[in-house]
Structures are given as structure tokens and as C-alpha cells.
Amino acid sequence: VKLVESGGGLVQPGGSLRLSCAASEFPSPYSFTSYGMHWVRQAPGKWLEWVAAVSPDGLPTYYLDSVKGRFTISRDNAKNTLYLQMDNLVSADTAVYYCALDRKGSGRGQGTQVTVSS
User: Fold this and answer.
1) What percent of the chain has pLDDT over 70?
2) What is the Cα–Cα distance from 7 to 17, expressed in whole angstroms?
3) Could you tell me whether strands 37-42 and 48-54 are parallel, antiparallel, or unpaired per DSSP bridges?
4) Which of 13, 19, 89, 100 lies at a C-alpha separation of 20 to 30 Å from 27?
5) The pLDDT value given to residue 94
6) What is the pLDDT of residue 24?
């Protein structure tokens, strides 16, 4: 599976970003809807951290406690795309964000940098 993240950038505290992850090259007979999908992140000098997950058909969803109420994970199965809407961003959210096939970050792409700073 090939995963390509996009949408990161520099944002001020309290701002918003929407990350996207385009998925392709699924091994037969699997497809995008065969997989629950995850977002994980890695801040400078820290371990990879699981952020959110979504089931194959879009529900249920799961979140790291520190992002509950601020981040929303979703997917468009017709477009083979995963999203992460991030609102009310804080400096602690600064990290490289990856989409992945499991909580450990398996299959993740190159990532997209999110920097929250004034």
C-alpha cells in the first residue's frame, strides 16, 4: 500500500489545518475499504505517537485524549482518501504527521510537517 500525506504547514496557535492522505497500490484482493486507517505523529526528539483511527466504513472513530474535541478523522472511500481536520492547534501539536495502517505506524508515507507557532 502506498500512502501519501499532504496539507501540513505553519499555523498560529488556535489555527486550523486539514491533512489529507491518498492511498493506492493495494495488494489484491484488498482495497481501501479493507483497512481501518490511522494518523500518527512524531515530534522532534520524541517517539512516534498514535493520534486517531477510523474504521473501514467511517465509524467508529478513536482519538488520543489530548486531541479529543479538536481533531476529526474521516475518510472518503470513493476517493481512497483519509483526512484529519485539526482545529484549535497548540504548540504541542507540532510534529510530522503520517497516515498509517495501524497504531504503530506501519506502512506510513513520507509524512507532512505541521508547525504551530506564533
Assistant:
1) 100
2) 7
3) antiparallel
4) 19
5) 98
6) 93
Tens digits of per-residue pLDDT, 12-58?
Answer: 999 999 999 999 999 999 999 999 999 999 999 999 999 999 999 99
Q: In the structure grid, which three cell numbers stand for residue 84, read together?
A: 484529519
Half-sphere exposure of 100 (CA within 13 A, CB side): 24
What are residue 19's DSSP bridge partners?
A: 84
Q: Read off the amino acid at residue 10.
A: L
Query: What is the amino acid identity at position 34?
Result: S
Q: Write the DSSP string, 62-78.
A: EE-GGGTTTEEEEEETT
Q: Which of 27, 28, 21, 35 is nearest to 1 (CA)?
A: 27
Pairing of strands 95-100, 17-24: unpaired
